[in-house]
Amino acid sequence: MADGISDIRAKRNTLQANHALAILAPEAISQAEEAVLTAEQPVKNEQLSRHLVLVADRKVNIALVQAKSHFAEEQQKVLAKTRADVRLDARLARADAADARQEIDAQALLAHQCL
Q1: CB neighbours (10 Å) of residue 64?
Q2: Closest listed residue to residue 23, CA positions, set 66, 85, 79
Q3: pLDDT digits (tens, 9 = 90+) for 11-36
Q4: Measured between alpha carbons, how far apart are the two ends of the chain, in Å?
Q5: Would you state the pLDDT for residue 1?
Q6: Could you give the CA distance from residue 76 to residue 100 in angstroms, rounded to a whole number?
């Protein structure tokens, strides 16, 4: 087996074991798996073997970056919705406070007129 391929396999396994990330880049993970399997095959040409390991390493890194990128995009969507919800809640709270102040002012005026 080529030098370094076991570390690359471990990195790919770690990515695949992280379900939250693995579902976000299935095609890239599949390509990484194929590259790792190819690099694990015995090859007589040392230069070709190093090249296959390099390709496998790059494909695993690409899969990881794609998955993390998609994860960050999903998180950004969640945060944007949360921000919008909080802003709406704040506007509603301000409107409710204004209504309450008007009601208090109206009651105070009515009480003052009754005296």
Answers
A1: 20
A2: 66
A3: 999 999 999 999 999 999 999 999 99
A4: 98
A5: 62
A6: 36
Give every residue of the chain whose pLDDT is below 70, as ranges: 1-2, 115
DSSP states of the chain: --TTHHHHHHHHHHHHH-HHHHTT-HHHHHHHHHHHHHHHS--S-HHHHHHHHHHHHHHHHHHHHHHHHHHHHHHHHHHHHHHHHHHHHHHHHHHHHHHHHHHHHHHHHHHHHH-
pTM of this structure = 0.73
Task: Provide the pLDDT for residue 108.
Answer: 85
- Rounded CA-CA distance 2/6 in Å is 8
In whole angstroms, what is the distance from residue 111 CA to residue 97 CA? 21
From CA 86, how far away is CA 79, in angstroms rounded?
10
**Cα–Cα distance, 60 to 2 (Å, whole number):** 16
Gap between the Cα atoms of 47 and 50, Å rounded: 5
